[in-house]
């Protein structure tokens, strides 16, 4: 499974100050909405609301978040594609509908060139968690349960085509076993199902489920990144846990997008606005609390990163033999 290369998102410095100063002359012509193609409460939603809260006083115009869930994030993404490219409709997207979906879905309703990458926000690992009633306290013990009941143990995801779907798919493939996939429209409803004991496990964004881990409501067995996460220093990386998983590595990412045709000055200004938000000490503290790290770079660099992720995930999905209908 393809991972986010940390050096790729850190390689580019923040925009130079003169560039930022010039870009700040642009403002959207009216009230602006930020589409979140996921349910409220998850990491995509958290990032969308952070950006909206930052831009609202900065622009002195209303900036609201609209959650448009379903079809692995493609419903909300299609709404962005259909929007007028004047800057009044933006989207806080993620690795699922903006990278994975292009090769996973057979009937994609939009193309990569119809969605314009503007700025990355946060990246970070996923984490394997089980509900409190599951007896497994290690990945090896969970693997034993799965192998003893192949195709019978349910697991949740935040939607078909999300990294929270393909992360457990890869794990199950590497363990040579099966489980029942129960997709949801976002992280919050998936977590409700997990907390209620209706599913045994899920691999969710660390940024979205860290609170339940810290409260003891769920038990973390492994993080999906190459190394352990400082937020959960006692939780092993997946690749540490079993020989079969020695090459396992997955991260996820989130960023701001606009419709194709958005003017260059708008793109540059928005990128500078996100850079300014990320540079705030309170944003950096929030990212640390969420277990993620900031993504720096201008719009061209973020666009190149997104395109590379599309290519990488296409190979992963081809190798896994996955294909589903969108919607």
Automatic annotation (TrEMBL):
InterPro entries per the UniProt record, alphabetical: BUG, Bug_dom1
UniProt key word Signal: yes
Domain of life: Bacteria
Signal peptide start-end: 1-23
Residue ranges the record marks as coiled coil: none
Keywords, alphabetical: Signal
CDD domains: PBP2_Bug_TTT
Gene3D superfamilies associated with the record: Bordetella uptake gene, domain 1 (3.40.190.150), Periplasmic binding protein-like II (3.40.190.10)
Matching Pfam families: TctC
Similarity field: Belongs to the UPF0065 (bug) family.
Name used for this protein in its record: Tripartite tricarboxylate transporter substrate binding protein
């Amino acid at each position: 499974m393809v991972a986010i290369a940390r050096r790729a998102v850190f390689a580019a410095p923040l925009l130079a100050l003169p560039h930022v100063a010039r870009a700040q002359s642009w403002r959207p012509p009216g009230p602006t909405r930020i589409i979140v193609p996921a349910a409220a409460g998850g990491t995509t939603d958290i990032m969308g609301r952070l950006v909206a809260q930052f831009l609202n006083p900065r622009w002195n115009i209303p900036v609201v978040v609209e959650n448009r869930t379903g079809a692995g994030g493609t419903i909300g993404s299609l709404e962005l594609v259909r929007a007028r490219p004047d800057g009044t409709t933006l989207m806080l997207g993620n690795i699922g509908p903006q990278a994975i979906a292009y090769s996973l879905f057979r009937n994609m309703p939009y193309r990569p060139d119809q969605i314009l990458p503007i700025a990355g926000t946060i990246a970070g690992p996923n984490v394997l968690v089980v509900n409190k009633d599951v007896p497994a306290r290690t990945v090896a013990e969970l693997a034993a349960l799965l192998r003893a009941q192949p195709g019978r143990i349910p697991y949740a995801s935040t939607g078909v085509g999300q990294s929270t779907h393909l992360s457990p798919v890869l794990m199950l493939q590497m363990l040579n076993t099966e489980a029942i996939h129960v997709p949801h429209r976002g992280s919050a409803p998936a977590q409700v199902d997990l907390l209620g004991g209706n599913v045994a496990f899920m691999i969710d964004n660390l940024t979205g489920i860290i609170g339940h881990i810290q409260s003891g409501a769920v038990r973390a067995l492994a993080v999906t990144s190459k190394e352990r996460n400082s937020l959960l220093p006692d939780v092993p990386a997946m690749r540490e846990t079993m020989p079969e998983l020695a090459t396992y590595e997955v991260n996820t990412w989130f960023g701001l997008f606009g419709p194709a045709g958005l003017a260059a000055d708008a793109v540059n200004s928005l990128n500078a606005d996100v850079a300014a938000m990320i540079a705030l000490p309170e944003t950096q503290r929030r990212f640390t609390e969420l277990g993620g790290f900031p993504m720096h770079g201008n719009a061209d660099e973020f666009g190149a990163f997104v395109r590379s992720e599309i290519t990488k995930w296409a190979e992963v999905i081809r190798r896994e033999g996955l294909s589903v209908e969108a919607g």
